[in-house]
Design brief:
Layout lengths: L2 H6 L3 H7 L3 H18 L1 H13 L1 H16 L3 H11 L6 H13 L3
Helix pairs in contact: 2-3, 3-4, 3-7, 5-6
């Protein structure tokens, strides 16, 4: 897969393999996007769009949507889901992804 395609199919498992520390994992994703941008700015745009289509970003959006739909804090949604599935996204990971999304600009 190309670097853009890797981002398009990026999962929680891929994220956890980058680094045990979610903040460092996000930095690695940002670095990849910056390298693509240095090569060609349109590649960086493709990478950002691909990230937004990724399963991991969709999981983040689903958690936030559920929080709004159920009128519960995101933390409560995460707690409930982690009780059902120990491999569900953790609060620190979600926070790092939120930070990544805030930093992405065209």
């Amino acid at each position: 897969l190309s670097p853009v395609e890797e981002l398009r199919f990026f999962t929680l498992t891929n994220f956890r393999r980058l680094d045990p520390d979610p903040v460092k994992g996000v930095e690695k994703i940002k670095d990849k996007m910056e390298l693509l941008g240095n090569e060609n700015y349109s590649k960086k745009i493709e990478a950002i769009v691909a990230w937004h289509e990724s399963p991991l970003n969709k999981l983040y959006l689903a958690v936030c949507r559920r929080s709004l739909d159920e009128n519960l804090p995101v933390g409560s949604i995460l707690e409930r889901e982690i009780k059902k599935d120990k491999d569900f996204i953790r609060p620190q990971e979600l926070s790092a992804i939120i930070s990544l999304n805030r930093s992405l600009k065209f």
